[in-house]
Fold each of these.
Amino acid sequence: MKIDSICVRGAKDLNDRTGAVAIPIYQTATFAHPGVGESTGYDYARVQNPTREPLERLVASLENGRECCAFASGMAAMDALMWLIPPGGRMLATSDLYGGSVRLFSELAPRAGLNVEYLDTNDLELVRSRLGPDLKAVFVETPSNPMMHVTDLRALREAVGPEILIIADNTFLTPCLMRPLDLGADVAIHSGTKYLGGHNDTLAGFIVTDDQAIADRLRFITKTVGTGLAPFDSFLMIRGIKTLHLRMERAQANALRIALWLKGHPKVRKVFYPGLPEHPGHEISSRQASGFGAMISFEVDSAQTAEKALQGVKFILYAESLGGVDTLITYPILQTHSDVPQEKREELGITDRLLRLSVGVESAEDLLADLELALS
Ligand SMILES: *Cc1c(COP(=O)(O)O)cnc(C)c1O
């Protein structure tokens, strides 16, 4: 099946005898055994449940991977990742990451014996200079959050060799636009809360891999700590993914129009969107992805303009998160990246003039009219 068809029809109820078209919500915590020492394949819902299982297979096939584990949130998935790296190990990470990932890496990872160093993961010479026996993994967001830096995954794989684990956060582009495993990554990770779910109503996270040992380890973690996705939330994810391809198409068409419009606005100083030909990651994106996504960051002329814009939007919602059908505007400095130290924020360009848009699937005219009003 092509990916559009996988979105719609890729989830299969593995236990169906009714012909139900939607995957049922198996809202049960435990499962009766047919006989002593026998199992239906399900024993206790923390380990696996029959609504999560088809979702995991669906997301694995979307990412063209063999195995997928579904988690209660993107951060639960991120946390599980830390346990894949032996204590004393070092990991390189893209310098501007989702703020929650930075919080995890700085506050919790060191306690698990994992040291994270930030750099431009597309500067291959710099990456090579940091290789060493303790370097175990490279964590990449491409495009990154919120500065939209692009990393060439194939080139990164060549630069670090086959032994280093490459983990790609594919939340921004989704498998409809890019498949990191096909580009040399070992692991693709998602906040399913964003585009996969797509409706700003459910938290979820996913890890996809071809590596059986990694998948076994992740299953051991969800079984042990109970961070697997609940049946109802699994149902909502399956339902959301049915329209993923359509939403991505529409959202990125809207995003390109808005990026071009912002570029021409007198109060806008800079627009960060890989779909613009002058974006430094435009060419790499064109090679490794089939689209540029629908996330835009932009810098306005003053902090006052930024605050007025946030107060001035009437249709667009001023809210954290991204990837849903509703267009959201975010102030990274106060929201997603508030836990990143100010000095580091400044260095990255996350200033009081930076705004981030998650463009949804509404009418582009209504979105532009609202931005016009908010910036005037
Ligand atoms: C939102 C997000 C996360 C965290 O996911 P949650 O589902 O909110 O826990 C991680 N990485 C990126 C890129 C995100 O946008």
Amino acid sequence: MKRDPVAFLKEDMTELRGNNLEWVIRYLEGGSKPHCVVNGKEVLMLNTNNYLGLATHPKIIQAAIDATKKYGAGAGAVPVIAGSFDLTREFQEKFAKYKEVEASLLCQTGFAVNSGVIPMLVGKPDIVVSDELNHGSIIDGVRLSGAKRVIYKHRDISDLEKQLKEAEKGGARRICIITDGVFSMDGDMAPLDKIVNVAEDFGAMVFVDDCHGEGILGKGKGIVAHFNLQGKVHVEGGSMSKGFGVFGGTVAGSKDLIEFCTNKSRTYLLSTAHPPGIVAANIASIEVVENEPQHFKSVWEHTNYFKKEVQSMGYDTGRSETPIIPLIIGDPGKAQELARILFEEENIYGTPIVFPMVARELSRIRVQMNALLTKDDLNTALSSIEKVGKKLDII
Ligand SMILES: *Cc1c(COP(=O)(O)O)cnc(C)c1O
């Protein structure tokens, strides 16, 4: 019998479905805002990374329109050939100033930063010491590098030190510590001040991926500013697609670092640059974050209120220290059921997070705060979360 070369497509999907692990895409019919229409249904959205609500900010939208009219819809080339605009230079200068570093680079995405830059910073003769809960794109970047990967226990400085001692004995050419700034499943923060101290003792490079910290920590400047570590972190990776509400990856650091990445990162070199409208929107987004502190203030007010209320209902919010608030349920079936009922009956959109994104016994719904929510919205969500939680015997 001739074999079917693509039979695995259906087989793998059947297995995923059987394990309740299939992603079924829901489609937004309008902008990404707390009140939005998803699959024809009006819902309260509590699951976007658009923390400051900037994805639909009028000034940022206008900047995208104006630049698109002037420069066109597409970049036409990779950044190093003919895809960089005066806008790109303006963005990079503004972003560097904002992050209080010498220079910055606008890359295609945050994922592209990790998969393009990490394999150039380290290679076979080197060791990467990585937090066990780091983002998947960091894991992929480290795999591509061919460097030896050593995992330290989540946020555990004494384990980090132990691993660094081992790495030193092994005679690695370079040692690089990599951590998320804010961990996206739990909303907790890396102890970056302590990491930097330990790194200095071992002559290790520090790479922090601040995708969920920008716009949120350090009055919006990110985790490095939060800990007053300006000038002490060698590489800051980030994303314009979360708190800033637009699109793109960033690298921030020394001039040497940026020249190195410009010339070596394969994702930067080989993938088309952003459309000019996106670059202009990113510039406008930095301006909004700098000039309109109310969005920052609002997302934190919501965070503190919502967290206190769900905790007093009896929900376990784990280690959350940011607008990412997990409601840890434990049982994966129950977490999925809670999310399903909230969506279908209560019009509340939160994300169920189960294995393999988190350990099975830590299944949860992840809620993320947004500056554009109102107190009424929060109270509506809270009363639904309480009602359904009681019905399912969670609280
Ligand atoms: C979202 C995220 C990324 C990817 O960023 P994109 O710009 O969406 O590609 C990388 N790292 C972390 C920690 C993230 O949360």
